[in-house]
Write a structure and sequence with these properties.
Helices cover about 45% and strands about 5% of the residues. It contains 9 helices and 4 strands; from the N terminus they run αββααααααααββ. The strands form 2 sheets. It has a two-stranded antiparallel sheet. The chain has a two-stranded antiparallel sheet with strand order 3-4. β1 and β2 form a beta hairpin. The longest helix is centred in the middle third of the chain and has 33 residues. The chain is elongated.
Length: about 375
């Protein structure tokens, strides 16, 4: 009797926690219930079927739980050792929104639409055409000006005996035709064209800058900065040209055509200026400045049809200057031809070296050879 009371007391203590297990509150599980583990609804192991009298009523869970939890299949017959066939699970149906509490799900963040009343953003301003490096540009400009000014001051009081006894047969046939030319009008006209060739690129580039500044609002200051950079490049072209020209002139000391005459209205035949013919400074300066401006115009408008007329005007003005120097008797034809080549090379190369282009590559090197050294200069413009 005491054993029965002890067993009943143990069952009374164990049964409530087992009934509170989640498996005991599952939806309708058919013939199988978790309570059979504790002696409720035990199956008849000998017959393989549960006892009809051993089933216990189950409490139906709330509708929301039934909708969220899928139905579990019966574990099958424990006596036979076979599992029940798998039952496909239906996807859970969406739970209806609970509006009884008066709360709503948080709103989904959306990208705000652009306000049509606001003006569009201004277009980005293009980078400047020229790139300056003060550590390089300032010394180059200063060196060119020092060479030009120093040679002029040093030769101001220098004199020589003249070229009355010079042998004219040593002059080539092309230059010999220039002997005897003497025209003050042509000399003055060449001076006027020289000053025009120096000032015209600055004024023309300013006009082009003002036209380009009208394309985008607020870009006049940006365009003015680009024009200032171009002026520095043009001034560097002028300094390099005059410095190199004076250096070659005082190294060669070739007599001018009018120095072969005993007397000339163009100048003193015994002055140092009378033997500074090679190469023509007027011609090289005109070609350098005009070709530099045409190069800047072409770089700013690479697809413009006006690039060809700009080059024609530039070359025409510079070539006219050279022809007038020959007609005036100031230079030989070879002086003018060499001056045009040197001036064009400086006028094109200096702007290209300042071009603000990340794809440009420029390098210089030197490699030894059996007879000396080979200097190489490579670049992509």
């Amino acid at each position: 009797m005491s054993r029965c009371l002890s067993l009943a007391l143990v069952l009374a203590l164990v049964a409530p926690p087992a009934a509170a297990h989640p498996l005991a509150r599952a939806p309708d599980l058919g013939a199988w219930q978790p309570a059979w583990l504790f002696g409720h609804g035990l199956k008849d192991m000998s017959q393989g079927t549960p006892s009809p009298t051993s089933r216990t009523p189950t409490i139906a869970p709330p509708t929301s739980v039934l909708a969220a939890a899928p139905a579990l299949p019966p574990p099958g017959d424990m006596s036979s050792g076979t599992a029940a066939p798998a039952v496909p699970l239906d996807p859970p149906s969406p739970v209806p929104e609970d509006t009884s509490s008066g709360t709503s799900p948080p709103p989904v963040p959306t990208t705000p639409a652009a306000d049509p009343s606001l003006p569009p953003a201004p277009p980005a301003l293009p980078p400047h055409l020229m790139r300056l490096r003060p550590a390089v540009d300032v010394p180059v400009i200063a060196l060119g000006l020092v060479m030009w000014l120093g040679t002029n001051l040093a030769a101001r009081d220098m004199r020589w005996s003249g070229c009355q006894a010079c042998d004219r047969s040593h002059i080539n046939g092309l230059d010999r035709r220039v002997l005897g030319n003497e025209s003050l009008a042509a000399a003055h006209a060449s001076d006027a064209l020289l000053y025009t060739a120096i000032a015209a690129p600055i004024v023309a580039d300013l006009a082009d800058t003002l036209v380009a500044g009208r394309r985008a609002p607020g870009s006049y200051r940006h365009a003015a900065g680009g024009w200032a950079r171009n002026v520095v490049v043009l001034f560097e072209v002028l300094a390099v040209n005059v410095g190199l020209n004076n250096l070659v002139k005082y190294a060669v000391r070739r007599p001018r055509p009018y120095s072969y005459e005993p007397e000339s209205d163009l100048g003193d035949v015994q002055a140092e200026e009378a033997r500074l013919s090679f190469y023509s400074g007027h011609t090289s300066t005109a070609f350098a400045m005009m070709s530099a401006w045409a190069t800047l115009f072409t770089l700013r408008h690479p697809r413009a049809r006006a690039a060809v007329p700009a080059w024609l005007v530039a070359v025409g003005l510079a070539a006219t200057t050279g022809v007038l120097r020959v007609e005036a008797g100031k230079h030989f034809w070879t002086d003018v031809l060499f001056g045009s080549v040197a001036g064009t090379a400086i006028g094109v190369l200096v702007p290209l070296l300042h071009r603000n282009d990340r794809g440009r590559r420029f390098s210089a090197g030197m490699s030894p050879t059996p007879r000396g050294a080979l200097v190489s200069l490579t670049g992509r413009f």
